[in-house]
C-alpha cells in the first residue's frame, strides 16, 4: 500500500521539527558544545543517518525552527491582499499571526536568546539575518511599487519594523507574566506611526 504523499510530507515535517527542537533543548541542558548529532537523533528516537538526511550539522538543526518561522512570516506578508495598505498588512502579520497565543512566541523568544548566547550559532544566525532582511525588503518593495535597491523606504521599513519588534519582545521578556506580547508589539507599532516627536507612555501591564 502506497503512503499518501500528504501524510508522508507531514511526517517528514514532524521529524524535522522534532530534531530541531531536540537540538535546542539539549543545547540548553548540556551546553551546545556538548551536543552531538548522535545525541539529537537518540533524543528523537531516530538514527544518526536519519538526522543527516534532514540536517548537515547540529547548528543547522538548532537554527531551523527560528528560520522557518521568520520566512513563514515574510511569506504571509507577501500574500496579504494586493490592495491592502502596507502598514495594515504589517499590523495584521504582527498582531494576528506573530503574537497569536497558539504560536508559542515565548518558546521562539527563548530559542532566539539561546542562539544569541551561543557563539557558533550566532555567527550562522547573522548570515541568516542578512538573507531574511533582503527578502523582507524585496516584499516591501513589491507591495509598495518601489525598488529595493534604489529606494530607501524598503530598507527603512525593514529596519524600523525589525527594531520595533526586537525592542518589544525584549521588553516583554523582562516581565513576561505582566506584559502581553501582543499589547506591547501593538504599542511599538503605534509609536512608529506617531513618530518620535510624540513619545507615548505605557503600555499598561496586562492583568
UniProtKB/TrEMBL annotation:
* Keywords per UniProt: DNA-binding, Transcription, Transcription regulation
Q: Name any one GO molecular function.
A: transcription cis-regulatory region binding
Keyword check for Transcription regulation, yes or no: yes
Q: Which PROSITE patterns match?
A: HTH_TETR_2 (PS50977)
The protein's matches in InterPro entries, at most eight in alphabetical order, are given as: Homeodomain-like_sf, HTH-type_TetR-like_transc_reg, HTH_TetR, MftR_C
Q: Which residues form the HTH tetR-type domain?
A: 13-73
Give a Pfam family name: TetR_N
Superkingdom assignment: Bacteria
Fetch the Gene3D superfamilies from UniProt: Homeodomain-like, Tetracycline Repressor, domain 2
Q: Which residues bind DNA?
A: 36-55
State the PANTHER family in the record: HTH-TYPE TRANSCRIPTIONAL REGULATOR RUTR, MYCOFACTOCIN BIOSYNTHESIS TRANSCRIPTIONAL REGULATOR MFTR-RELATED
Its protein name is Transcriptional regulator, TetR family
Amino acid at each position: 500500500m502506497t503512503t499518501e504523499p500528504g501524510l508522508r510530507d507531514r511526517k517528514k515535517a514532524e521529524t524535522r521539527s522534532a530534531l530541531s527542537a531536540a537540538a535546542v533543548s539539549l543545547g540548553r541542558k548540556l551546553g551546545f558544545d556538548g551536543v552531538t548529532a548522535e545525541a539529537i537523533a537518540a533524543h528523537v528516537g531516530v538514527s544518526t543517518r536519519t538526522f543527516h538526511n534532514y540536517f548537515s550539522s547540529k547548528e543547522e538543526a538548532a537554527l531551523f525552527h527560528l528560520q522557518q518561522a521568520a520566512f513563514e512570516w515574510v511569506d504571509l506578508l507577501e500574500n496579504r491582499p494586493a490592495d491592502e495598505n502596507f502598514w495594515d498588512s504589517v499590523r495584521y502579520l504582527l498582531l494576528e499571526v506573530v503574537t497569536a497565543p497558539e504560536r508559542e512566541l515565548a518558546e521562539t523568544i527563548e530559542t532566539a536568546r539561546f542562539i544569541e548566547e551561543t557563539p557558533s550559532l550566532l555567527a550562522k544566525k547573522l548570515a541568516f539575518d542578512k538573507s531574511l532582511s533582503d527578502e523582507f525588503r524585496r516584499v516591501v518593495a513589491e507591495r509598495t511599487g518601489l525598488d529595493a535597491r534604489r529606494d530607501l523606504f524598503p530598507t527603512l521599513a525593514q529596519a524600523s519594523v525589525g527594531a520595533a519588534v526586537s525592542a518589544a519582545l525584549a521588553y516583554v521578556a523582562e516581565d513576561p507574566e505582566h506584559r502581553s506580547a501582543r499589547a506591547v508589539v501593538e504599542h511599538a507599532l503605534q509609536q512608529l506611526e506617531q513618530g518620535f516627536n510624540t513619545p507615548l507612555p505605557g503600555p499598561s501591564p496586562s492583568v
